[in-house]
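Field log, afternoon session.

UNIT: design team B
ACTIVITY: writing a sequence onto a fixed backbone
BACKBONE:
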């Protein structure tokens, strides 16, 4: 019973249980990761598939359709006058094909047979074929509306394919940023553990001096305070690592229930690659549009907005359509005789008509103006935002990298000096020439500089990865 209770308590204390499997995170792991299995990638595909569906639905409207109708009717009404017969039964069958076009023209071809009976006629039968036309004479004349809408659906699909390429790369960048944040966290933990070991030794030395009445209890308390502070810093780093693991598990479901550990990595090699990339980018005087798809997307959006503005004008126009039907039929008593009459003596029937629908008042004009105004604003905003984003990402990121590199250079010089000073201080401390507080101050300064180096290198790397999220086709080893 005691062991059962302990098991239950351990489950509640440790809600994140692992299956025993472990995953070692390396650059190779992320390079070989199948993006198609990630939920974020599936969302990217969903946007593209939705656009493909819209394009396909438009194609469906232009596809030929087979039509069939069968009707049968009976009328049991009372006949009030022998000259006004009750027609019953009635039968009609029709087969046909219809097709819409991008020219504002709809065509329908049918074959039909109909038959009825009344007091005067028995099995009066009409069989024949018909050809129906519907032609838009204004709003969609020669397809001026349909062709624009169809072009927009195709261009929207182009945009979604380009966005798929860009968002897929941004997902890869997000995973890289998480990985390098974990690397920086691991390095910070290593340095902090070294500081803790130093603090433990200093506490031990000071405690020994207190016992020998060489030091006082106040100094020992300060040493213990420094140890507790460094252990607190380590706990904070573990907390940050836990958050990074959580973010990674959300992006990569296969990591759920598995223990995560860091594999081997080369900071020196990565920093060397990083500076090669920054040097290439700094040589570019303006935003390299050939290295991004954003300007391609913006250009396509511009074309879509132009068409939408024209469609807004058409929306306010009158709706005028021409209808025409031509028919050849044969008539007789019975289907067989009707078909024979159609073959021997077909008779033509034709009709033509127009339909007009025109707005009354100014409401539609007002709606069209608003729609046109919205389209114009969207067009201008898209152009300005895209250009501003590209210029800002290029110029400001270059400036940021220059500042960070200058800071890193100063930090390296400072770190070198502090390392020499710390070695000298340790020698002096062993000779009892300086106090333990002075040695601790030297150690804190040196290791704080080491941590600053890690943070600055990480900042440069994150900045460059942000640059690659926009200029996704930049030729660089870190962007491969």
């Amino acid at each position: 019973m005691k062991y059962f209770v302990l098991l239950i308590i351990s489950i509640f204390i440790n809600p994140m249980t692992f299956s025993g499997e472990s995953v070692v995170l390396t650059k190779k792991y992320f390079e070989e990761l199948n993006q198609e299995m990630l939920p974020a990638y599936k969302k990217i595909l969903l946007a593209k598939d939705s656009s493909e569906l819209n394009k396909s639905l438009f194609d469906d409207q232009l596809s030929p359709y087979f039509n069939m109708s069968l009707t049968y009717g009976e009328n049991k009404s009372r006949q009030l006058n022998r000259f006004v017969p009750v027609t019953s039964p009635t039968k009609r069958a029709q087969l046909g094909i219809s097709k819409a076009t991008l020219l504002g023209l709809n065509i329908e071809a049918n074959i039909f047979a109909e038959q009825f009976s009344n007091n005067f006629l028995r099995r009066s039968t009409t069989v024949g074929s018909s050809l129906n036309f519907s032609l838009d004479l204004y709003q969609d004349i020669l397809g001026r509306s349909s062709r624009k809408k169809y072009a927009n659906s195709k261009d929207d699909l182009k945009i979604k394919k380009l966005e798929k390429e860009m968002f897929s790369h941004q997902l890869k960048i997000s995973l890289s940023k998480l990985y390098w944040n974990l690397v920086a966290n691991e390095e910070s933990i290593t340095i902090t553990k070294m500081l803790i070991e130093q603090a433990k030794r200093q506490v031990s030395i000071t405690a020994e001096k207190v016992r020998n009445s060489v030091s006082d209890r106040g100094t020992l308390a300060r040493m213990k305070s420094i140890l507790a502070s460094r252990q607190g810093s380590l706990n904070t780093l573990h907390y940050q690592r836990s958050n990074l693991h959580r973010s990674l598990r959300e992006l990569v479901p296969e990591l759920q229930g598995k223990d995560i550990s860091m594999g081997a990595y080369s900071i020196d090699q990565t920093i060397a690659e990083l500076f090669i990339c920054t040097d290439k980018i700094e040589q570019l005087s303006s935003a390299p549009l050939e290295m991004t798809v954003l300007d391609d997307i913006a250009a396509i959006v511009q074309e879509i907005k132009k068409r939408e503005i024209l469609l807004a004008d058409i929306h306010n126009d009158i709706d005028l359509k021409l209808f025409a039907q031509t028919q050849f039929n044969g008539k007789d008593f019975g289907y067989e005789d009707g078909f024979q009459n159609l073959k021997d003596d077909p008779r033509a029937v034709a009709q033509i008509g127009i339909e007009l629908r025109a707005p009354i008042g100014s409401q539609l004009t007002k709606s069209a103006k608003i729609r046109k105004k919205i389209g114009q604003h969207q067009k201008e905003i898209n152009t300005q935002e895209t250009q501003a984003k590209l210029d800002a990402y290029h110029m400001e990121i270059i400036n940021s990298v220059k500042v960070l590199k200058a800071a890193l250079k100063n930090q390296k010089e400072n770190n070198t000096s502090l390392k020499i000073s710390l070695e000298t201080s340790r020698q002096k401390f062993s000779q009892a020439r300086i106090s333990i507080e002075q040695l601790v101050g030297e150690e804190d300064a040196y290791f704080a500089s080491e941590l600053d180096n890690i943070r600055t290198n990480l900042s440069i790397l994150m900045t460059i990865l942000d640059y690659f999220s926009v200029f996704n086709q930049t030729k660089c080893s870190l962007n491969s």
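LOG NOTE: The domain at 148-308+367-479 is CATH 1.20.1600.10 (Outer membrane efflux proteins (OEP)).
NEXT ACTIVITY: expression trials, pending approval
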